[in-house]
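Lab notebook: predicted structure, single chain.

Context: the supervisor wants predicted structures on file for every construct in the current expression panel, including those that have not yet been purified. This is the next one on the list. No modifications to the sequence; it matches the entry in the shared construct table.
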Amino acid sequence: MTSLVAEAVQAELGARERWPNNVKLYEPYQAEQIILPDYANCLSVRTFLKMCNAPFTRELRTNAEEMSPSGSVPFLQVGAFIVAEFDPIVAFAGLRGFSLNTDLSETERSELRAYCAMVSSILGRAEKYLAWLTDSVALEVTQTRVGSVHPWPLNWMIPMLKKSEVKSHLKSVGWADKSLEDVLDEIKSCCQALSERLEQQKYFFGDSPTELDALVFGHLFSLLTIELPLVNIAGNIREFVNLTNFCQRIEDKYFKEKEDD
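Prediction complete. Output recorded below exactly as produced.
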């Protein structure tokens, strides 16, 4: 009972503090462990927090996924609160006064939500497909990275279980039976829609960034820069010059010489 009371008091104190100085963002180790879908999600959240000027420190953990309340990375610790994944973190930050869409009309906010949903569903599923259902990538990259932090026999059991879980999810949404060409076409179609929305603007909704800009950068930058065996994704994305220029602007503004990745 004492513990529950203490937790309630901590939660109340945390709620009164807009944004503590010791906010932590938990992620897997990038160089040795992180895989494509997780890297895109972590980068999207990091970009959003930087755009909000919400201070945080990165905490890299080999078991970040197991620590997360949702089983997915990244997750944010703000006082007594732990929040995982992009949409909940954006919503939580908004309750603390960190929002990037306050100047948008209701129509624009609806449009923003629709584009965010498109990016998360199409590019998010494509990243999972590429990482787990493309044999060359799964064998040479994904399974090795996921298993690297575990002793034998977990180092091969856990990747197999994870692959089965991802395949089941993709099957439920009609993606498991797609060919690699189909998936690359899905990525290209998504980029076409984003390119048409961005046009020659600095950001998707004018001169100021929104969470859509953070989300798009996280996914596109990951797909542009990752090296996967026998798969060329970057070439297709670079056809959309305004999107590659957009990614370069975001990288220059929020990441160059600001953190050691």
